Task: structure prediction
Amino acid sequence: MSRYFSSQVSQLTPYTPGEQPKDQQYVKLNANESPYPPSPGVAAALNAREAAGLRLYGDAAARELKEALARQYKVEPENVFVANGSDEALNFAFLSYATDGRGVAFADFTYSFYPVFCDLYHIPAQIVPLREDFTLVPEDYYGLNKTIVITNPNAPTGLAISRDQVEGIVKANPDSVVIIDEAYVDFGGESSVALTKQYPNLLVVQTYSKSRSMAGARLGYAIGDAALIRDLETIKFSTNPFNVNSLTMKAGIAALAEQAYYDENCKKIMETREYTARELEKLGFTVLPSKTNFLFAKKEGVDGKALCQGLKERGVLIRHFDKDRIRDYNRITIGTPEQMDIFLEKLRELL
Ligand SMILES: *Cc1c(COP(=O)(O)O)cnc(C)c1O
Result:
């Protein structure tokens, strides 16, 4: 770091994304990306006319995209916030709701960006341990009187809680905001979007990065009470009014018009997930029941880190987290059936 770096932020440990190595062609099962391309309408939307339009600023109000998302999720445009990836929506939500001194509560094993935001904004974090089997105890979050953030379905475990369980948590914390990060909800989870109509303290965050095959486009959104959305807009207009670029907005609208394509992809991924889980079990792995586009698995007597490294040497990338209690596990993104067969073949070789 330079000697000019402010002491307010110089101690930050930044988030580490899944690696994107370019030294060879890998079977890439380490970043929960989709193995399928965006729908045809997305490519068509990114045309020469749109490219020429780049000379102008986009619509800071993101009116068309918000209307399209509102139709999709049966809410009003005033209930939708759009962001440069859901990481940005989460960033703004932490800044908006967790910087009043009361702090934020989240699980010991969940999205590893949350502690980074806590660091960034000097927010006290209350870590709520998952059970031994990695399930979440909703009652642990009752009456905490601070911001709560829950990834549902969770990462890296893949486990989900029900909408009723979310509702219990939201009801039991009327004086604080509950953020539900639904990055993986389209792979079998139960969305809490409908609850946002009833509860002014519930914010649901989703993304185009996983189920809509658009991680590179950077598009996420939050759905909630209009007052919550206005808060996020205040932060956006105080940092980067044109946070979502015009091409991405067009792509996002086009994707919503082809929902059946994405539903079909999610169905394929869920089928491939169940196939892969059964094959892993045949090899002696313990596999957590997943509602996401990845599996979290371990095998007794096999070192998790060594397994991840061994697969990398054989051209397959998966994700290992070097943390107590989950060190034996690896997170394996679900690719195409062909990719999973290569993964399984390399894995058998290695074992
Ligand atoms: C991938 C992921 C995100 C971030 O998604 P972007 O929209 O690409 O920023 C947010 N939360 C969780 C839990 C994720 O896994």
In short: The two ends are 42 Å apart (CA to CA). The first strand starts at residue 27 and ends at 28. Residues 32, 85-87, 111, 151, 155, 181, 183, 207, 209, 215, 220 surround pyridoxal-5'-phosphate (CB under 6 Å). The chain has a mean pLDDT of 97.
